[in-house]
Amino acid sequence: MIRALYTAATGMEAQQLNIDVIAHNLANVGTTGFKRSRADFQDLLYQTLRDPGAANTATTQVPTGLQVGLGVKPAGIQRVHLQGDFVQTTNPLDVAISKEGFFQITTPDGSPAYTRAGAFKLDSSGALVTSDGDALTPPIRIPEGAEQITIGIDGTVSARLPGETAQTQVGQIQTVRFANPAGMRAEGRNLFAETVTSGSPQSGTPGQDGFGGLTQGFLENSNVSVVEELVAMIAGQRAYEINSRAVAAADEMLRAAAGMAR
Known about the structure:
Elements: H1 2-27, E1 37-43, E2 46-50, E3 66-69, E4 72-79, E5 86-88, E6 95-97, E7 102-106, E8 112-115, E9 121-122, E10 128-129, E11 135-137, E12 147-151, E13 156-160, E14 167-172, E15 175-177, E16 185-188, E17 191-193, E18 202-204, E19 214-216, E20 218-220, H2 226-259
Antiparallel strand pairs: 1-4, 2-3, 5-20, 6-19, 7-8, 7-11, 7-15, 9-10, 12-13, 13-14, 15-18, 16-17
Helix pairs in contact: 1-2
């Protein structure tokens, strides 16, 4: 009965974490380039009262044994890097990556970071930056007075300069990819960082050698499915309630056992 209390408590804690992850996904349903997360769980150690296959007699063996599980534990929270839907904005500085790849930016402390959110702006010097002012890497600067900014599928940035009729190339957007993007560390602000398990970033030209091409005037929406998250939330809530009932049942059994001594 004591064992049941602790076992059911691990189930309640696991479902609390599951709901926390689902709530985070739902909170970011409108976040550009957001990738949903999923909580993975493992069963805990087992108390072995009799090993499977133990000798029962000189000629027979126990077919199943006696093993009692001790609950559940979180194994990890995996980020699912499936592509979200594209939404048209008609803003020439909005760029979406089709399929694989990340934009590389430089944070204020000089360290690199990576994002799928291509809602770029211009700073006071004409450089392409994120909403927080972090510069795109390699840096791209749009000359003052330039018109008709065009970003090609291969990342070529062109603009019509004052006094000219033809467009002039002013930069080239490069993207990076990772062997294991799920192993990247989320930094917040739509940013990811390299880790040992993600592998080193591989830089390349968009639309070539397996790198996703760029689409100007579009942004990538979150890949969160509200319906799926709501269904998972209901299932998690019911699992939490069932585990709480197991706690209550074990408590009642303990109360009955304690009452026998009276």
